[in-house]
Amino acid sequence: MRKEKPTEKKAKRWERTNVANLLKLAPGGGYYARVIVNGKQKWRSLKTKIFSVAKLRLADFEREERAKAKRGADAGAKIDGYKCGDLLALFLTEVSVSTETRDASKARIKTSAKALLKTWPDFADTDVRQITSARCREWAQLAQTKGTRFVPPGAKRKPANKSMSPSAFNKTLSVLRGVFALAIKHGLIYVDPSEDLTRMTPARKILALPATVQFNKLVEVIATSGACQARDCADLVMLLAHSGMRLGEAALLTWGSVDFDRETVRVTGTETKELKTLSSERDIPLFPGLKAHLLAMHAKAKSTAADRKVLKVFEAQKALTRACELVGVKRMTHHDLRHLFATRCIESGVDIPTVSRWLGHADGGALAMKTYGHLRQEHSKAQAARVVW
Q1: How far is 271 from 146, CA to CA, in rounded Å?
Q2: Beta strands in 260-350 (DSSP E)
Q3: In what order do the strands lie in the sheet with 282-285?
Q4: Phi, psi of 264 (to 5 degrees)
């Protein structure tokens, strides 16, 4: 008597439906997809007992399997095996040759990749097809509670368990998802097992900005430091604080963009990570402080041709950090000078939507309200205290 093959025995349990490639497990079971690609039969549980849902998932499965077959030769040429370490290496290679990724971003991605391997020790040697959602959640919990256990050079003892900062965790999660996206692209997996993970919400930055007297002292310290470009660094700091421009925007500013007659400055917008669709090219007023500063720079400039850059240096972080230490204020970054501008505007009574337009936001003030809303409330309370009957 001929022995029944496992596939034949299994086939008797299926019920056909009126949709091609869609079968139901009898009796009362869930739906399964069965497609034939390149002569091979592919099965997958659609994990539902609802017919309408099964049809949608079947379509996704069919599309994915045919795409995998189409990419098969290419995938085999690019990826040797299914180890996550191989995929991570390929991901980093693609990032390194990308012309759309800035060098600073490439360095951060490389650092985040190291953090991923630190917090997930067996990740590199794990078959990507064996990674589950549960394993991803386990990694996220460990990363958020124990961190990378990084020991700073020269440290006398290992640090206690320290969770990753929201920013560090989110960047590491992005690298992990980049690896899984690459695996999906090459047909190694069907879904991203990390899709259920949520990004950590960064704590709102507490703005500890200098008072006007302190800021003026900062500029003076920078300008008189004795460095070869001390005055140029001070000019950059003043320009950022009096205009609210991003560092990249200030670097692009030319004398042709400054209209002293109309008292406006044309700012060439740059994209921000907060607003990816932002087109922030805009005209801002020549605020009194900004006008005085630009007139002084104009007077001493060797050339004020329309295509000449206003600034001579495009970075002053070391000078700014040193000046903060000498003046006795919290360390500031270039971007903090943008916060300083917005804060001064709000304290002067300018409404947030207007400040938002000056900053180059295209969201009607939502981001500015999130960042500076508490300042408006504090300013309002301070002004209310001056009302005396």
Answers
A1: 34
A2: 264-267, 282-285
A3: 258-259, 264-267, 282-285
A4: -135, 160
**What pLDDT shows up at residue 341?**
93
* Per-residue pLDDT tens over the stretch 167-223: 889 999 999 999 999 998 888 888 899 999 999 987 776 778 898 999 999 999 999
Pairing between β-strand 40-45 and β-strand 14-16 as defined by DSSP bridges: unpaired
**What is the C-alpha to C-alpha distance for residues 169 and 200, in angstroms, rounded to an integer?**
7
Place of tokens 């430091």: 225
Q: In the chain, what are the domains? A: 13-72 (no CATH), 84-152+159-185 (no CATH), 212-384 (1.10.443.10)
**pTM as predicted:** 0.56
Quote the CA–CA distance of 67 and 125 in Å, as a whole number: 27
In SS3 terms, 91-126 reads as HHHHHHHCCCCCHHHHHHHHHHHHHHHHHCCCCCCC
Determine the Cα–Cα distance for residues 212 and 218; give it in Å rounded to an integer.
Answer: 10
Q: How far apart are CA 245 and CA 293, in angstroms?
A: 14
- Taking alpha carbons only, the member of 382, 238, 252, 379 closest to residue 314 is 252
Q: How far is CA 205 from the centre of its chain?
A: 16
58, exposed or middle or buried, with CB in 10 Å at 0-12, 13-18, 19+?
buried
Q: Give the Cα separation of 42 and 63 in Å (integer).
A: 12
What does the alpha-carbon distance between residue 161 and residue 146 come to, in Å, rounded to a whole number? 5
Return the residue matching tokens 């139901």: 24
Q: Are 347 and 264 in contact (CB under 8 A)?
A: no
Token representation of residue 367: 């981001």
Tens of pLDDT, residues 316-356: 999 999 999 999 999 999 999 999 999 899 888 888 889 89
**Is 193 in a helix, a strand, or coil?**
coil
- Token digits of residue 352: 């947030």
| Distances, alpha carbon 69 to alpha carbons 43, 73, 235, 274, in Å | 15, 8, 59, 38
Cis peptide before 121 (omega within 30 of 0): no
The torsion region of residue 154 among left (phi > 0), alpha (psi -120 to 50) and beta comes to left
Tell me the two tokens of residue 54: 């099964």
The pair phi, psi for residue 68, each rounded to 5°, is -65, -40
Tokens of 74: 């290419």
